[in-house]
Amino acid sequence: MALLQVENLKKSFGKHTVLKGVSFSLEKGQTLSVIGPSGGGKTTILRCLNFLEIPDEGVIRVGEEVIFNAADSRTLSEKEIRKNRLHFGLVFQDFNLFPQYTALGNVSLAPKLQAGKDSADPSRRVKTTEEIEAYCLEILSRVGLADKKDHYPHQLSGGQKQRVAIARAMAMNPEILFFDEPTSALDPELTGEVLKVIKQLADEKMTMIIVTHEMGFAKSVSDKVLFMDNGVIAEEGTPDKVFYHPENQRTIEFLKNYTGIE
């Protein structure tokens, strides 16, 4: 059974329909890259999956659990939404770090707040402050920033800030990590250090969905690729199929604008 199943996801903002019936699945340990032109619905998928937006239609399953079904007329409570979000970790485009906290403080804040509260999987909680900080320092080490644990965001480079943001998302031990254009706010010379961390997570079989314009990276890191255009999945398949043997004319036209996909 797939770890994540999305069925007929639809979302409109006023009269503008952004998602027009998106369906896909993702197995545990797979990396899925979502590519396509701006405005195609890529970010909206992540926002709907993480309940930053509530879909108008569709079903979302994690494992055997239905965490959202638009056919259910009952409105999800804030408590249910928070619980559902524990399945996922989201890394934003622009870091969103708290400037008043150190790197370690940013990473450990959510686990400290969550300690003792309801969890999607209570057995995975780390409860004491000492355990939480040791655990979060280990995660900072995994992204190469243990030596920056006491630095504040203004003392970090853009690439370091984004790696702290990745560590923060990992700290809640999510089943799936979402990345929304994780290098778009970075100078080109800093992009590589962030992509290296994401590639490391893919090698470790962390289940991930990555919205990206880095075509070469998407080809090298992904098990599956979705090409989104105008609110629908216009093409999907392995990186080899999507990048080298696309069938949809819109995919072909889009990829003509990119180099470095050898």
Question: Which helices and strands occur, and which strands form pairs?
Answer:
Elements: E1 4-13, E2 16-26, E3 31-35, H1 42-49, E4 57-62, E5 65-69, H2 78-85, E6 88-91, H3 103-114, H4 129-142, H5 158-170, E7 176-180, H6 188-203, E8 208-211, H7 215-221, E9 224-229, E10 232-237, H8 239-244, H9 249-255
Parallel strand pairs: 3-8, 3-9, 6-7, 7-8
Antiparallel strand pairs: 1-2, 1-4, 4-5, 9-10
Descriptive key words:
single chain; 262 residues; alpha/beta; 35% helix; 10 strands; globular; 24% strand; four-stranded antiparallel β-sheet; 9 helices; six-stranded mixed β-sheet
Describe the protein in words:
It is a single chain. The protein is of the alpha/beta class and 262 residues long. The chain has nine helices and ten strands. It has helices spanning 42-49, 78-85, 103-114, 129-142, 158-170, 188-203, 215-221, 239-244, 249-255, and strands at 4-13, 16-26, 31-35, 57-62, 65-69, 88-91, 176-180, 208-211, 224-229, 232-237. The protein has a six-stranded mixed β-sheet, sandwiched between helices. A four-stranded antiparallel β-sheet has the order 2-1-4-5, covered by helices on one side. Helix 6 links the parallel strand 7 and strand 8.
